[in-house]
Specification:
Strand content: 5-15%
Helix content: 40-55%
Number of strands: 22
Number of helices: 33
Strand order of the largest sheet: 9-13-10-11-12
Radius of gyration: 35 Å
Distance between the termini: 82 Å
Shape: elongated
Length: about 850
């Protein structure tokens, strides 16, 4: 606006009717003139550099209080005449008011009420809820309440001021769901504190947002508290405290206040109530709501919103978790672990569902001693975010340092038995006997009465022994989850080549009620103090070699290591495989039949890198999931300017001071990305190794053979599972045209090491099947002679060609668990899904005249 008009508006803003406005008009005029002379804007304003403000700083609290009232009055004029007054004048006045409110002001109760009324908050508040919300968000109400708090500490509660604050709290209900809701939640919390502080005879008012189920449940709990109960005030104080749970970790003040409140309520009562709330949070549905916008011309855009908890409720949940941390029993730790998994659930286009809450759960578990470490160990392989896996690793490392052991040792120490002894626990409930047992890696429950086996738990027990049955279910779940987690931990530990004293191994593995079920079915290498060593499997109550000859018990000083086929000769490996097949012993993880990757002549020539797994096309999201599952760090590549962190998936190997890098690049093609800009496909390049703190590639001959083999096995897994060549629909379902030759070559080309191992297994299995007379292994294929045609099933991809013209037959496999075990044939190892798919396809095609699926019969009869 013109200078004269601006000056006129300037003077009008300062010429309020109050005594304070008249007194402070010259002060505010000079302050604003000084600011204008220095060409300061709201964003560059530094009041300490303004001469007029220096004079204000030297005044007493009463003077500053009057100036605050005058400034607020001027701001109100600016707000009511926003078309007349320059917005910069208002911004500068607001900056001054905020600075004054951060200092000590001398204002009586009437002055504080006037200040709030000047913001546009009328008492009692009317129906203009939007105006109240606007004032709460736009004006420095929170800072003003800080002045109220100082007044109360000095003078005690003031009846009229307290009444006005209560009216304001009531007026803010539901305002926390509007724009600026986070600020209003803080204001509501401060109002609750002021109305129910230690000096108040009234109970502190506590109210939560009611926009989600958790907030509503908390409000119901508050409403159900008895005003006369001794625990009511500490409960309300604890609930108030949880609303202030900000940041990544609880402060010392938070812990002190939480501990005091828990002690006053009673720890058992808090834990019992917390269990109910944690169950609610874990079971709360994550609601996906789709929105569609239609633009001119009929073009539409659809996007999804995911609703779990409102931000204020997330803070309360975090406060709840922080409070439980150090004292949570095993049952609550299990709930915390489940809630952490839910919090880290990835939401498309958004990231983790509630990472702050999930991080709080990890912190609580880290403070929970060995049982908490056990939960962290179980969680780590289930979480795909690399930074979260590293966070869990740091928690475990810190706990191990406090006990003076290694991270691996503390994970051993923390494994729960779930009440099992030698993989079994027996219970008696009245006339019924129940057995919880690990059978082939499955935690199963069986029921008996009078020696007769029952199919399920008797209905009568569900009422008479409800609590015991609940505990049994928890034990079964814990046994299964612990077994699976420890199996996966052992599988990942091959690459570490970890050694432990036999005394430790005996205590934490062989004599452990649950881990013994893993240890006794694996082959171990024992290195004795005299320099000798032998490999052994626990069989028929003794350590035996591959020929089943008994061996003497190792001394406590002997070193124990998981046996790996790369450490043995070919004859030794074959002997162990023969033993497993002869005795029909299924190992919990692939060990005797594990793939071995040795340096090849081309890799010796390239010296510092391997191209063995290069030039493959992978589905990027599937590759990402596999990489995270195996502990690799990888960031999805995006179809935008440098939309990724690096060109490689990386695996840190601290036990060897090595880092493996598997290089990939985006497959850049029109439309080859999803709605969030992430490439659908990546192409693979070289594999190389560096030091953890270095960048220079190391000679492959310097890499320990076991490390090289395990890393190459991971990479082969990535290719073998994520390659587009494994997708029977990819060629005809819209796959990239320029890569169809790759699909053909991979689908029916040379076998990888995994596929070669699969071929060996099939050579032994097929003769035992009902299709033995019509099936045989030929080069890269399992050939099946059906009634209508002859089929060649590739041993690598599982894809099918039909003779006589090698016509492609597309059969999409059933991924259900039933399909994976359809053959009922003994396998000495678990986890090869493609092997199960090949066998299922072979059994189907051997009776091709009985196939009724038209999508298959049309292709066969074409």
């Amino acid at each position: 606006m013109p200078a004269t008009q601006k000056s006129r508006a300037f003077e009008q803003a300062l010429a309020g009717p109050s005594v304070e406005a008249q007194e402070m008009q010259p002060v505010l005029r000079q302050l604003l003139l000084d600011i204008e002379e220095r060409q300061m804007s709201y964003y560059t304003l530094k009041l300490l550099d303004v001469p007029a403000y220096q004079g204000i700083r030297e005044q007493d609290a009463a003077y500053k209080g009057r100036l605050a009232l005058a400034t607020a009055e001027a701001i109100r004029f600016c707000r009511d005449h926003h078309g007349v007054v320059d917005y910069q004048i208002r911004n500068l006045l607001e900056a001054l008011l905020q600075q004054l409110l951060r200092s000590t002001l001398e204002l009586d109760a009437a002055g504080l009420i006037r200040l709030l009324e000047t913001y546009g908050i009328q008492f009692p508040p009317g129906d203009a809820a939007a105006e109240v919300g606007h004032a709460l968000f736009m004006m420095p109400v929170l800072l003003t309440l800080g002045q109220v708090e100082k007044f109360q500490k000095k003078h005690g509660p003031h009846a009229e001021l307290t009444r006005r604050l209560g009216q304001l709290l009531a007026a803010t209900e539901h305002q926390d769901r509007s724009y600026g809701g986070g600020t209003i939640v803080k204001i509501r919390l401060k109002l609750q504190e002021l109305l129910g502080g230690p000096a108040s005879a009234e109970l502190p008012p506590v109210q939560f947002v009611d926009g989600d189920a958790f907030g509503r449940r908390l409000n119901e709990f508050v409403a159900g508290l008895s005003p006369s109960a001794a625990s009511t005030r500490p409960w309300l104080q604890l609930l108030q405290l949880w609303q202030k749970a900000g940041g990544g970790q609880p402060t010392a003040k938070f812990r002190k206040e939480a501990d005091a409140a828990v002690a006053a309520i009673g720890p058992e009562a808090v834990r019992a109530q917390a269990a109910e709330w944690l169950a609610l949070l874990a079971g709360l549905a994550v609601e996906q709501i789709e929105h569609t916008h239609t633009y001119e011309g009929g073009r539409t855009y659809t996007y999804s919103e995911w609703h779990f908890l409102l931000e204020p409720s997330l803070n309360v949940a975090k406060g709840l978790v922080w409070t439980l941390g150090p004292t949570a029993p095993a049952a609550l730790q299990q709930q915390l672990a489940e809630l952490a998994l839910k919090g880290y659930r990835k939401i498309p286009g958004r990231g983790p569902l509630a990472s702050g809450l999930a991080n709080a759960c990890l912190l609580a578990l880290a403070q929970g001693g060995l049982p908490g470490v056990a939960q962290l160990s179980r969680l780590r392989p289930k979480i795909r975010q690399a930074n979260t896996q590293e966070l869990i690793g740091r928690h475990i490392e810190k706990a191990s340092q406090e006990l003076g052991v290694t991270p691996a040792e503390i994970e051993d120490m923390a494994v729960p038995t779930a009440g099992l002894v030698n993989g079994r626990a027996d219970f008696d409930y009245g006339d019924y006997h129940v057995v919880l047992e690990l059978a082939e890696g499955k935690a199963e429950v069986s029921w008996q009465k009078g020696g007769k086996t029952l199919k399920a738990a008797p209905a009568a027990l569900k009422q008479s022994h409800a609590a015991e049955l609940k505990e049994l279910k928890v034990a079964q779940t814990q046994a299964q989850q612990t077994y699976t987690g420890q199996r996966d931990r052992l599988d990942r530990s091959f690459v570490e080549a970890r050694r432990m004293p036999f005394a430790w191994f005996r205590q934490y593995y062989l004599e452990h009620g649950l881990l013994s079920q893993l240890a006794e079915r694996l082959i171990w290498r024992f290195a004795h103090p005299d320099g000798t060593q032998h490999d052994a499997l626990w069989l028929d109550g003794a350590w035996r070699n591959a020929q089943e000859h008994p061996l003497p018990a190792p001394a406590d000083e002997a070193q124990v290591q998981l046996w790996h086929p790369v450490l043995a000769t070919t004859d030794e490996v074959l002997a162990w495989r023969a033993l497993l097949e002869r005795r029909e012993l299924r190992q919990p993880l692939k060990q005797a039949f594990r793939e071995v990757y040795l340096l090849t002549p081309p890799e010796e020539r390239t010296r510092t890198y391997s191209n063995r797994m290069a030039a493959h096309v992978l589905k990027q999201h599937q590759f990402n999931s596999l990489a995270k599952l195996r502990g690799w760090r990888y960031a999805l590549m995006g179809a935008y300017d440098k939309g990724y962190e690096s060109d490689a998936a990386q695996l840190s190997l601290p036990a060897h001071d090595l880092r493996a890098e598997f290089w990939v690049s985006e497959v850049n093609a029109d439309g080859a990305w999803n709605d969030t800009g992430i490439w659908h496909y990546v192409s693979t390049d070289q594999l190389r190794f560096t030091r953890l703190a270095g960048q220079e590639p190391l000679p492959l001959t310097d890499i320990p053979p076991l490390v090289f083999s395990e890393v190459m096995r991971d990479v082969d897994l990535f290719v073998g599972v994520a390659s587009v060549g494994n997708d029977p629909l990819w060629r005809d379902g819209g796959g990239l045209v320029q890569y169809r030759n790759y699909w053909e070559n991979y689908s029916f080309g040379e076998l990888s090491e995994v596929a070669k191992n699969r071929k060996l297994a099939l050579q032994r299995l097929v003769p035992r099947l009902r299709i033995a007379k019509v099936s045989e292994i030929q080069d890269r294929f399992l050939v099946v002679k059906g009634k209508l045609r002859t089929y060649k099933i590739h041993l690598g991809s599982g894809n099918i060609l039909m003779e006589p013209n090698d016509q492609y037959l597309c059969i999409v496999p059933d991924r259900s668990p039933k399909q994976a075990t359809a053959t009922d044939v003994f396998l000495p190892f678990e986890g090869d899904a493609i092997l199960s798919i090949i066998l299922s396809k072979a059994l189907l095609l051997a009776d091709d005249d009985k196939i009724t699926d038209e999508t298959i019969t049309r292709q066969i009869k074409r």
